[in-house]
Design goal:
This protein is α/β, with parallel strands linked by helices. It has an eight-stranded mixed sheet, sandwiched between helices. α7 links the parallel β5 and β6. α1 packs across α3 and α1 packs across α5.
Length: about 300
């Protein structure tokens, strides 16, 4: 995951989203020297497709405070987000934090895994939107053991900290998150949804073997090396990729092969003209058409496998 985060920072610079100075600063926080960071930036620049994303690329207005639980106005085609509430529970290494949104008439329950920015307002809004369509949702904070995302005044420090945590701790915390979802939504089928870094952790959770999952939806997440998903037999997997995001989308054939080998029901979607993080309506790569299509497909998948 540290390698993935480093590549994401380098690619953000290549795409003009970060200055070189800021990219080098963020890579240094991950422990990379200037020479290694410069080499990585050059490598990412050589592999980036020449085409630019089409559709909406301007982020919509939304609060960015890491502590707000108020619902935000949904982007076009999305459900109105219900209000979330901060929650805590006992995890394997101390108290875990998250934001919970309970559906009025639950049709299932979902654990939501954030991007490499930690638990922020956008992730809370995803949990709220899921609750708005009938799926109670818990957005987990994977920086809980460090005091929570809200304790980081520098977002780059939060990202760097996530990059230094072992995948085994993340998996243990996510399993505890599913315990909490199950406790809050007894009798409901369980699903997991993750974005970017969080999408990679959906794959990690599946590879670790999680038989409680009825559905799993990784959005443009990095695939583990040589994955085996046999331990997650019950999970129907819907995965999303952006056609312009070759850094991650190049792993789609390997993901498909591993899912088929494990006998998991699956559908892997490559959204045309979409780049990495196309679903995040607060980010510069947001693609309204791709996001609306993914949201429609996700609802259909949950109806078939979770409700």
């Amino acid at each position: 995951m540290q390698r993935y985060i480093a590549e994401e920072i380098a690619t953000d610079h290549v795409d003009g989203l970060l200055s070189r100075r800021e990219a080098l600063r963020r890579l240094a926080l991950l422990g990379m020297g200037t020479a290694a960071a410069s080499a990585l930036i050059a490598a990412c620049g050589n592999t980036k497709p020449a085409a630019a994303p089409s559709g909406s690329s301007t982020p919509t207005s939304m609060p960015t405070s890491p502590s707000s639980e108020a619902p935000a106005a949904p982007p076009p085609g999305m459900a109105t987000a219900l209000r979330t509430e901060p929650v805590e529970w006992a995890g394997p290494q101390g108290q875990l934090q998250g934001s919970w949104a309970g559906a009025a008439t639950p049709r299932g329950a979902v654990l939501v895994i954030h991007e490499n920015k930690g638990l922020n307002d956008w992730v809370r809004s995803v949990a709220g939107r899921l609750a708005g369509i009938g799926y109670s949702a818990l957005a987990i904070d994977l920086l809980s053991e460090e005091g929570g995302t809200a304790t980081f005044t520098d977002p780059a420090e939060a990202t760097a900290t996530l990059g230094k945590i072992a995948a085994a701790r993340f998996v243990a915390d996510l399993k505890s998150g599913l315990d909490e979802v199950q406790r809050r939504a007894p009798g409901q089928k369980l699903a997991v949804v993750g974005f970017c870094f969080g999408g990679g952790l959906v794959w990690q959770l599946l590879a670790a073997g999680e038989p409680r999952l009825a559905a799993a939806v990784p959005f443009y997440g990095p695939l583990p090396d040589s994955p085996t998903f046999a331990g997650s037999k019950g999970a129907a997997v819907l995965a999303f990729y952006g056609a312009l995001d070759q850094r991650v989308t190049s792993s789609e054939p390997a993901a498909k092969a591993a899912l088929d080998q494990a006998g998991l029901v699956n559908d892997l979607i490559v959204e045309p003209d979409a780049d990495h993080a196309f679903f995040n309506d607060t980010g510069p790569r947001y693609n309204a058409a791709a996001a609306a299509d993914a949201w429609t497909r996700l609802q259909g998948w949950f109806t078939d496998h979770l409700s």
